[in-house]
C-alpha cells in the first residue's frame, strides 16, 4: 500500500516538474527579445515562434488533422497562441509590464472557475486562496508604485487571460488520439496563421536582413520557446488537471525577474523577493492533491477528466 502511494506521488510530481519547464522557458522570452531580437517587432517574434515551430512538428510526425480536429485545432491554436499573442502585444504596448503581468495572473482563477463548470473539477477553498495569493505575489514581484492604467490595455490583458484560460480548459476537454507532437504542431500552425495577417497589418513586412544575433534569438524562440515548451505544456494538460497546470504559468514572471537580476543587473528589492516566495508558495499549494484510495490491481494513470453531459459539448 505505502509503495503504491509513493509511486503515485512520484509519477504525478514528475509530470508537474516536467510541465513546469514550459513556463520557465517562456520566462526567458523577455531576455531573448530585448537582447537578441530587432526592436519594435513583437508580433513578428510571436509569428516566428508559432508558425515555423508548428511546421517542424508536423513534418516530423507526418500527421495532419482529421475530422473535427481541423476546426478544433483552429480554435485551440487561436486561443492558446494566435489571439493570445495579439492581445498580449496590445497590453504590452499600452501598459507597464508589471500591470499586464498582474492582470494576467488571474488566469489560474479563471481556469479554476471554467474547469468547475466544463470539466467538473472540484473548486476548493485552497485553490481560491492560492489563486488570490498568486495575483498578490506577481503584483509584488513586477508592479511598480507609479504604474499607470489604460482602459484598453487592461481590457487586452484581461482578454488575454480569458482566451488562454479557455484554451487550457478546452485543451483538456478535447483530447485527440493523435501523437502529442502532432497536436501541438497543429495548434502552433493554426495560431501562426491567425497571427500572420495581424503582424503584417500592424508591423508591415519583416526586415530585409537579420543579424546573426537576431537569427539565434528567433531559432531559440522557435525550437525551445515554442516547439519544446508547448509540447511539454500540452503534455501536462493531458496528464494533470487543468487548474494545477495553469498555476505553473506563474513561474514565467519569476524566471523573467530572476534573469533580469542575474543577467541584466536589474535591482531586486525585498518586496520582489517576497513576491517571488508568495508565487512559489501559491503554485506549490495548488499542486498538493490528496491521493485517491487505490483499488486492488490499480496502476497510476494520467488524469483524464470525465466528459460532462452538456448541450453543445461533445
What's the average pLDDT? Answer: 85
Radius of gyration: 19 Å
Number of strands: 0
Order of helices and strands: HHHHHHHHHHHHH
Tell me the helix content. Answer: over 70%
The low-pLDDT segments are 4-9, 291-301, 303-314
Beta fraction of the residues? under 5%
By secondary-structure content and strand pairing, the structural class works out as mainly alpha
How many helical stretches? 13
Distance between the termini: 37 Å
Largest sheet: none
**Total tally of structural domains:** 1
How would you sum up the global shape? globular
How does this structure look, described?
The protein has helices spanning 2-26, 29-36, 42-61, 69-94, 97-104, 107-118, 125-142, 151-173, 180-203, 212-239, 242-248, 251-262, 270-287. The protein has one domain. 46% of the residues are buried. The protein is mainly α and 314 residues long. The protein contains 13 helices and no strands.
In short:
This protein is an all-alpha fold.
Helix-strand layout with pairing:
Layout: H1 2-26, H2 29-36, H3 42-61, H4 69-94, H5 97-104, H6 107-118, H7 125-142, H8 151-173, H9 180-203, H10 212-239, H11 242-248, H12 251-262, H13 270-287
Question: What attributes does this structure have?
Answer:
314 residues; globular; mainly alpha; 0% strand
Amino acid at each position: 500500500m505505502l509503495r503504491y502511494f509513493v509511486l503515485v506521488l512520484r509519477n504525478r510530481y514528475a509530470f508537474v516538474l516536467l510541465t513546469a519547464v514550459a513556463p520557465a522557458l517562456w520566462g526567458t522570452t523577455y531576455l531573448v527579445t530585448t537582447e537578441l531580437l530587432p526592436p519594435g517587432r513583437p508580433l513578428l517574434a510571436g509569428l516566428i515562434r508559432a508558425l515555423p515551430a508548428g511546421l517542424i512538428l508536423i513534418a516530423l510526425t507526418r500527421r495532419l488533422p482529421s475530422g473535427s480536429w481541423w476546426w478544433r485545432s483552429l480554435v485551440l491554436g487561436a486561443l492558446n497562441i494566435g489571439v493570445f499573442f495579439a492581445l498580449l502585444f496590445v497590453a504590452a504596448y499600452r501598459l507597464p509590464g508589471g500591470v499586464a503581468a498582474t492582470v494576467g495572473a488571474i488566469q489560474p482563477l479563471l481556469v479554476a472557475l471554467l474547469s468547475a463548470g466544463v470539466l467538473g473539477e472540484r473548486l476548493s477553498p485552497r485553490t481560491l486562496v492560492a489563486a488570490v495569493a498568486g495575483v498578490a505575489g506577481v503584483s509584488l514581484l513586477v508592479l511598480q508604485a507609479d504604474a499607470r492604467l489604460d482602459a484598453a490595455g487592461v481590457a487586452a490583458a484581461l482578454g488575454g487571460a480569458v482566451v488562454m484560460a479557455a484554451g487550457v480548459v478546452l485543451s483538456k476537454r478535447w483530447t485527440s488520439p493523435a501523437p502529442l507532437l502532432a497536436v501541438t504542431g497543429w495548434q502552433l500552425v493554426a495560431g501562426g496563421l491567425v497571427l500572420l495577417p495581424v503582424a503584417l497589418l500592424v508591423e508591415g513586412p519583416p526586415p530585409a536582413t537579420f543579424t546573426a544575433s537576431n537569427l539565434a534569438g528567433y531559432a531559440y524562440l522557435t525550437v525551445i520557446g515554442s516547439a519544446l515548451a508547448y509540447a511539454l505544456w500540452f503534455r501536462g494538460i493531458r496528464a494533470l488537471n487543468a487548474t494545477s497546470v495553469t498555476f505553473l504559468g506563474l513561474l514565467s514572471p519569476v524566471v523573467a525577474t530572476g534573469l533580469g537580476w542575474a543577467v541584466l543587473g536589474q535591482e531586486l528589492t525585498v518586496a520582489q523577493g517576497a513576491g517571488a516566495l508568495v508565487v512559489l508558495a501559491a503554485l506549490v499549494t495548488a499542486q498538493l492533491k490528496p491521493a485517491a484510495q487505490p483499488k486492488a490491481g490499480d496502476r497510476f494513470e494520467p488524469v483524464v477528466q470525465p466528459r460532462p453531459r452538456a448541450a453543445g459539448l461533445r
